[in-house]
Design goal:
It is found in: Cell membrane. By secondary structure, this protein is mainly α. Helix content is 73%, strand content 1%.
Length: 489
C-alpha cells in the first residue's frame, strides 16, 4: 500500500519501540485486553439472550437486535480511525468507551425496540475500540513483536468469555436480559478510566481533516442496503418501504464513491488500497461474516430441544455455557497462534488455516451438528479458532502494510470489513429463516430447511473466501516481516 500520509508530527526511531515482554508492556496489554472484554460484552453478550430480547420487544427481526451495534460500528470505524490518527489514539479510545457505556444504559432502559436500537447504535462505538487497541500496540511495539502482542490483545479477552456464558446463563434467569447491558456499561466505565491512567498518549499523529460528511453518507448507504435485506422478508421484497431504503442506500453509496471518495482526504481512500490489502480485506469480510452469522444461529439452536422433532435443536444442561464458554479457548488459541506464526511466515497463512477450519466446522454442522450438542460444541470450538485467526491475521496484514502514522485509518478498514461481513451475513441468515418459517401446534418456528440453508450459506462464504486467500498467498510469498517501520522501507 503506498504511503500517502502527510508529514508526521513525530517520527519514533525504532530503538524507542518495545521488542520484548516487559512490565510496562504487560500493563499496556492488560488494559487493552480489558477494553476488548468490554467490546465482547457489546458484540457477543447480547447474542446469548436473543430469544429473550425477541420476546421482550415482540419482534422477529433478531438480526437488528444482534447486529445493530456492528452495523453502527461500520459507520463509526472509518470516522474514528481517521480522527485517532489526527488527534491521538488514546484520546479517541477514551471517547469511544464513554459513548459505548452511554449506549449500554440507553439499551438497558429502552421502552421499545426503536430506543433499544438507538442504544445499540451508540454501543457500536465499541467496534472502533477494538481496532484502536491494535493501533496502540503498533505505536509502542516493534512490528515483528507487535504481531504477537496483537494476537494476545485481540483474543485475550476470550479468557473472560470462558466463564461469561455460565455466569450470564444464571444471572439473566434471575435479573433478566437487562443484566447484559449493566455489565457492558460497567466495563466501559472501568476501561475508560484505566486507558486514561495507563496507556501513553500518542506520539505519532498526522495533520489532516476528518471527512464527517463522507463517513455519514457511506454509513447511510450501507445501512440502506441492509435495511432492505431486513425489511424485505417481512413486508415483501418489492414493497415501497424496503425498495425506498434500497434505492436511497445505493444512491448514497454511488455519491460517496464517485464524489466524496475523491476529496483530498476521504474517510476511506479506496483507490489507495493495494492489491495485497484488498485481497486480505476480502477474506476478512467473508470469513468473519460467516463466523458471526453462525454465532447468532447457535443462540437460536440452544433455545430448541431436539425432542421437539423439528430436525434441529441442541438445548440441554449448560448448553449456553458449553457453546459459548469452552469455545472461547479457541479464540485465544487461534489469535495467539496466528500472531506467532505470522512472525515467521507472514499473516496470509494463518488466514488460510482459519478458513479451512471454518469450512470443516460448517460442513459438520450442516450434516450432523444442528441437532447434536456435543458435535455442535466441537464445531463452535473450531469456528472460534477461525475467528481468532481471521481477526488477528487481518489486523497484522494491515499493520505491516501501513506506515505508523496511518495505523488508525488502515486498521479501521479491517474493522469495517468485519462489521460489513457480520451484519450482511446476519441479515441474510435472518431473511432465510424468515422466509422458511413453519407453523407447528399454532406456533411459528424456524424450519429445518431454513436452519440448514442458513448453515450452507455460511459454509459457502468460507469456500468462496478461499479464492482471494489463494491469490494472497501468492502475493505474499517470500515476504519477510522485519522490525523496520513500513514508512522507512
Amino acid at each position: 500500500m503506498p504511503d500517502m500520509s502527510s508529514d508526521t508530527t513525530a517520527q519514533r526511531p525504532p530503538a524507542d519501540l518495545h521488542t520484548g515482554w516487559t512490565g510496562r508492556v504487560i500493563g499496556y496489554v492488560a488494559v487493552l485486553v480489558l477494553v476488548n472484554v468490554m467490546v465482547d460484552t457489546v458484540l457477543a453478550s447480547p447474542t446469548f439472550v436473543l430469544p429473550q430480547l425477541r420476546d421482550a420487544f415482540d419482534t422477529t427481526q433478531f438480526a437488528w437486535l444482534d447486529s445493530s451495534a456492528m452495523l453502527a460500528g461500520a459507520m463509526w470505524a472509518p470516522l474514528l480511525g481517521k480522527t485517532a490518527d489526527i488527534y491521538g489514539k488514546r484520546r479517541i479510545l477514551v471517547i469511544t468507551l464513554i459513548v459505548a457505556g452511554l449506549g449500554g444504559l440507553v439499551s438497558l432502559l429502552a421502552p421499545n425496540i426503536g430506543v433499544f436500537v438507538l442504544g445499540r447504535v451508540l454501543q457500536g462505538a465499541a467496534v472502533a475500540a477494538l481496532f484502536l487497541t491494535v493501533a496502540i500496540i503498533r505505536d509502542v511495539c516493534a512490528p515483528k513483536f507487535a504481531m504477537i502482542v496483537t494476537g494476545v490483545v485481540t483474543s485475550g479477552s476470550a479468557a473472560f468469555g470462558i466463564v461469561q456464558p455460565f455466569v450470564l446463563e444464571i444471572a439473566t434467569k434471575v435479573f433478566g436480559w437487562q443484566f447484559v447491558f449493566v455489565v457492558s456499561a460497567a466495563f466501559a466505565a472501568v476501561a475508560a478510566l484505566f486507558v486514561r491512567l495507563v496507556i501513553p498518549n500518542s506520539r505519532i499523529t498526522t495533520p489532516g481533516r476528518v471527512d464527517v460528511a463522507g463517513a455519514l453518507v457511506l454509513g447511510g448507504g450501507l445501512a440502506g442496503v441492509l435495511v432492505y435485506i431486513s425489511l424485505g422478508q417481512e413486508f415483501g421484497w418489492l414493497s415501497l418501504l424496503p425498495v425506498a431504503a434500497l434505492v436511497l442506500g445505493v444512491v448514497a453509496l454511488l455519491v460517496w464513491y464517485f464524489v466524496l471518495s475523491r476529496v483530498p482526504e476521504p474517510v476511506i481512500d479506496v483507490r489507495g488500497i493495494s492489491a495485497v490489502l484488498g485481497l486480505g480485506l476480502l477474506v476478512v469480510v467473508m470469513g468473519t461474516g460467516a463466523y458471526r452469522s453462525m454465532l447468532a444461529l447457535f443462540s437460536l439452536l440452544i433455545d430448541v430441544s431436539p425432542d421437539e422433532g423439528l430436525g434441529y435443536g441442541i438445548a440441554g444442561p449448560a448448553a449456553l455455557g458449553l457453546m459459548f464458554g469452552i469455545p472461547s479457548i479457541g479464540i485465544m488459541l487461534g489469535g495467539i497462534v496466528a500472531g506467532a506464526i505470522a512472525t515467521r511466515v507472514g499473516p496470509a497463512w494463518p488466514l488460510a488455516a482459519g478458513l479451512t477450519l471454518g469450512t470443516i466446522a460448517s460442513l459438520t454442522m450442516f450434516t450432523v451438528g444442528a441437532a447434536n450438542l456435543p458435535i455442535a460444541v466441537i464445531c463452535s470450538f473450531l469456528l472460534s479458532v477461525t475467528a481468532g485467526s481471521l481477526v488477528t491475521s487481518g489486523f497484522n496484514l494491515a499493520s505491516i502494510l501501513a506506515p505508523p502514522e496511518r495505523q488508525g485509518t488502515v486498521s479501521s478498514m479491517v474493522m469495517v470489513m468485519v462489521a460489513i461481513g457480520s451484519v450482511t451475513m446476519s441479515f441474510v441468515g435472518s431473511a432465510i429463516l424468515g422466509a422458511t418459517d413453519v407453523v407447528v401446534a399454532g406456533e411459528t418456528v424456524n424450519s429445518s430447511l431454513g436452519v440448514h440453508s442458513y448453515i450452507a450459506v455460511a459454509g459457502c462464504a468460507f469456500v468462496l473466501a478461499a479464492v482471494p486467500v489463494t491469490f494472497l498467498l501468492r502475493r505474499m510469498r517470500g515476504h519477510v516481516v522485519t522490525d523496520v517501520p513500513v514508512s522507512q522501507v
